[in-house]
Amino acid sequence: MRVPRPLLTIFMLVLFAAACSSRTGQQPQAPPQTGAAVTLVGAGATFPFPLYSKWAQLYEQQTGVRINYQSIGSGGGIRQFIERTVDFGATDGPMDDQQIAQAGGRVLHVPTVAGAVVLAYSIPGVGSGLNFTPEVLAGIFLGEISMWNDPRLARSNPNATLPAAQIVVVHRSDGSGTTRIWTNYLSKVSPAWKARVGEGTSVQWPTGLGAKGNEGVAELVSRMPNALGYVELAYVLTTKLTYGTVRNASGRFVRPSLESTTAAVEGALGGIPADFRVFITNPDGAQAYPIAGFTWILIRGEQPDQRRGKALVDFLRWSIHDGQQHAPPLGYAPLPAALVQRIEQALESVTANGKPLL
Q1: pLDDT at residue 25 above 80?
Q2: Are 71 and 213 in contact (CB under 8 A)?
Q3: What residues have CB less than 8 Å from 346, skipping those under 6 apart?
Q4: CATH of domain 5-114+292-356
Q5: Rounded to whole angstroms, how far apart are CA atoms 15 and 18?
Q6: How far apart are CA 58 and CA 86, in angstroms?
Q7: 113, 335 in Cβ contact below 8 A?
Q8: 3-class secondary structure, 230
Q9: Is 342 exposed, middle or buried (0-12, 13-18, 19+ CB in 10 A)?
Q10: pTM reported for the whole predicted model
Q11: Exposed site from 11, 112, 206, 293, fewest CB < 10 Å?
């Protein structure tokens, strides 16, 4: 996918700055030398693209192993993983049982980080901090609330001067794990949304304009007055978009941040299943931001090539350990230590020719 040039420039500057500033935390351990000739190919989610780009840069510098990751959307990543055209897929919405059956063999969902899905908007003269209730968000994306000065939106924002302007809804046009998180949330908080639209990586949108990737949604919202769209927190931070707070299950309006995303993850820890397929939407907890989720790398439990499989597992082991220190500067919540231990055990089960790779 072609990333718009302004966004690409911003992303590269942010990644460089993060590389220079990320010197806190534990000292990284030298990853295994798996061979300079190995290039691992992956494709999928745009949600973690800024972080995966940074990881790829650092890992190649340290090991010589190249990670060629294409940001094409979660739907495309799952499709290419099923078709075996990549070494790994990437998705923000877990594969369902039917997709796993199509992939054949044992499939591992490896959580890498957690992130927040943010409501970004561009209203002339209005800064960040608009309050959104679940009911208003469902109403906007159902097309039932079409004006920024609608009384239902104004009630939650008594100090804001909202214009008598039409809300330009922006959503994803491609198969998207970010969409899966967003529609999973709306299905939990709105019976009307669940009945009329439901959840998925692609849905029949009642209203709005489509854009490809988190990059495309962020770009469209940034240049279109009175637009509103959902994007991953990293894209809001890098593009300096204005964004809102969302009322959580405890009745508090919570700002999306690293801290509130971490609170959401911690609130969901007890319910994470053995296969790690779970959504972190509308969780309990006063400090929890209500629209969050893991992003996963998809790998096969039985690797077809021992050398490439070893390189892949080594990279994933590095990502859940040393790679985590690079997540917070880009707006991603690192994995809790208890979850890292469980992922480590899952990686130890990966084999090639019947032999463990770790």
Answers
A1: no
A2: yes
A3: 108, 110, 276
A4: 3.40.190.10
A5: 5
A6: 21
A7: yes
A8: strand
A9: middle
A10: 0.83
A11: 206
